[in-house]
Amino acid sequence: MHELSVCLAMLNQVSDIAERERAANVTRIVIRVGPLSGVVPELLQQAFTIARAGTIAEQAELLTEEQPIRVQCLRCGSECEARANHLVCCECGDFHTRLISGDELLLASVEFNR
Amino acid sequence: MCDTCGCNVTHGNRHLIEAGGKHAHTEDGGEAVEVLQNLLSENDHQAGHNREHFARHQVLAINLMSSPGSGKTRLLESTIDALQDRYRIGVIEGDLETENDAERIRRKGVQAVQITTGTACHLDAHMIHQALHRIDLDELEILFIENVGNLVCPASFDLGQHLNVTLLSVTEGDDKPAKYPVIFRTADHVLITKSDLLAVLDDFTPAKAEQAVRQLAVEGPVTLISAKTRDGFGPWLEWLGQQLERMTIRQNDTQPAANLR
């Protein structure tokens, strides 16, 4: 539901970058999204097709690179892949873990023509 | 996450910055620039600014999140009743429409500002900043922000709060944390509300709800509570007191350094 807000914030950032780089148009936007960011890539894509109209990214494609969820155990130190609703250590089962990847919501790169 | 200390660089994106230089040429002859900035950096910047406001006025800001109808406003009413003599409390209310919740809080004799978001499903840092201009922070020690009732969207927007409290009412089902991990994962304290109804609900097991919360690597307390009977209020109020004390100690620690600057 909030993907349109996120998309508008992204397009603001992209416009600033395009202006700074003196770009004529933006051709591709690459973002990195983790499942724990709370943003659904498919909904962001839908929002993008509406929100890009009239911006410098009107012709751009949006590429989403989904990130894996990984945690590190604070007890035994193991590092393992995890699921969104199961972030416990895969080795010792302890729930004292630290998320090392999976909540990203990053603008990775912008491609453009001058 | 921020762009100054590098904490937004994870093993998943590190190669992007280590790939050698920020600019590159694309296969089709265009140009590419690597950014690695949080998509919500504008919101996060504003949230940081809000946090500075709170620090300057020594106010503890707590973001309350839950689905609609799980008892956030009722919890606040009872909390204000219990703490009003001890702490100066203020409330920011977020709803799509109406002043109803702010009016309920004002009837308790505390400052309350209503944000009506129209169609927006969450509060963001800019809305909070506007609301802060309508609140006298000098008069407060604790500011509660009651987010829009929604278990999805509020989780993605930093408001500048110090702590998140997420409510789960016993009428909602004990597997809610497993279904909505993003919002429950960020909780510093999970309150299982409306515990007075447990007597008539045989399908909600508090221990199962707590287990689902722990599966999300949440270390904070999980408290069974009823705003109606005040069951569980002891631990909740005690926790609030501890958090306020902790914040005051932290701020006193940083005072000399801040003066030196």
Describe this structure in words.
The complex is a heterodimer of chains A (114) and B (261). Chain A has a 3-stranded mixed beta sheet, with helices on one face. A 3-stranded antiparallel beta sheet of chain A has the order 4-3-5, with no helix packed on it. In chain A, helix 1 (3-20) crosses helix 2. The mean pLDDT of chain A is 95. In chain A, 25% of the residues lie in helices and 32% in strands. Chain A contains 2 helices and 6 strands; from the N terminus they run αβαβββββ. Chain A has a domain at 3-67 and 102-113: 2-Layer Sandwich (hypothetical protein PF0899 fold). Chain A is of the alpha+beta class and 114 residues long. Chain B is α/β, with parallel strands linked by helices. Chain B has a single domain (46-252), classed as Rossmann fold, CATH 3.40.50.300. Helices cover 36% and strands 19% of the residues of chain B. In chain B, the strands form 2 sheets. A 7-stranded parallel beta sheet of chain B has the order 5-4-6-3-7-8-9, with helices on both faces. In chain B, strands 1-2 form a two-stranded antiparallel ribbon. In chain B, strand 8, helix 8 and strand 9 (222-224) form a beta-alpha-beta unit. The longest helix of chain B has 28 residues, at 233-260. At the A-B interface, helix 1, strand 1, strand 5 and strand 6 of A face strand 2, helix 2, helix 6 and helix 7 of B.
Outline:
The complex is a heterodimer of chains A (114) and B (261). In chain A, 25% of the residues lie in helices and 32% in strands.
Work out the number of β strands of chain B: 9
Globally, the shape of chain B reads globular
Low-pLDDT windows of residues of chain A: none
Count every helix of chain A, treating DSSP H or I runs of 4 or more residues as helices: 2
**In CATH, what is the class of the domain at 3-67 and 102-113 in chain A?**
Alpha Beta
Largest interface: A-B, 47 and 47 residues
Strand line-up across the major sheet of chain B:
5-4-6-3-7-8-9
Could you give the distance between the termini of chain B?
25 Å
